[in-house]
Amino acid sequence: MEVTFVIIDDNKEIEEHPLLFTLEDKFKNVKFYSNPQEGLDFIKNNLDINLIVLLDIEFSKDDKLDGHDLLKEIYNSSTLIPVILWSGINQTNEEFSDFINNRAFGFLSKDCSLEEAMQIVDKAFNNLKNSLDNTIEDWIISNESDKDKPIYFTSSGESYTLNEILKEIRLQTPIGKEFSSKLNSLTIDLLLRKKENL
Predict the structure, then answer these.
(1) Domains of the chain
(2) Cα–Cα distance between 17 and 112 in angstroms, integer?
(3) How much is the pLDDT for 16?
(4) Which of the 8 DSSP states describes residue 124?
(5) Could you tell me which Pfam families the record lists for this protein (predicted)?
(6) How far apart are CA 150 and CA 56, in angstroms?
(7) What is the pLDDT of residues 158-193, one digit of tens each?
């Protein structure tokens, strides 16, 4: 599975952090943004690929967005993107509560060891790898002739191929969310009626 790491931090010196070199060696695709709005724009324009975000919390006073705003914006754009908060400052319980409500995947101190950081990064990668959209993508890679087969039909008569459904899920469109919900319900129903075994 290919994944792109998006690092948003206004401290350019962080580009020399050992964690970023390790991410480049292991995953290849690493994008660094010191301007939070540019980082957010990249994320919003690339919702159809696998993204993991490392997000600083505190930005300069000249920036209109801080980590709280960015996390909320990312979550509103897609619930599929693991966002790891990466900070050198201490947060109050109230601020951490805000992050939890906006579904931060995890927290990393900039002072933590490389091993500790990679444990959370690998956990985020595995979470992404086991998601519904990546299961569909793996299926398409293994069964390429299936990608253009219509598999989902709406009540208004529209049909979607497997490849189109993958895109709808990743873009978090109403169709993508509807398909995901119905597929989960169908799977549970089949398991309860012992029609299928996992």
Answers:
(1) 4-130 (3.40.50.2300), 133-193 (no CATH)
(2) 11
(3) 87
(4) H
(5) Response_reg (PF00072)
(6) 42
(7) 999 999 999 999 998 999 999 999 998 998 888 888
The pTM assigned to this predicted structure is 0.81
| Helix axis angle, 18-27 to 114-129, nearest 10° | 40
For residue range 30-71, what is the model confidence (pLDDT) as tens digits?
999 999 999 999 999 999 999 999 999 888 777 777 888 899
Given a contact cutoff of 8 angstroms between Cβ atoms, the answer to whether 42 and 55 are in contact is: no
Give the DSSP per-residue string, 45-100: HTTTS-EEEEE-S---TT-S--HHHHHHHHHHH-SSS-EEEEESS---HHHHHHHH
Report d(CA 48, CA 172) in Å as an integer. Answer: 9
For residue 122, is pLDDT > 90?
yes
CA angle (92, 98, 103) in 5-degree steps: 125
What's the CA gap between 198 and 187, in Å, rounded? 10
Nearest by Cα to 108 from 98, 94, 126, 122: 122
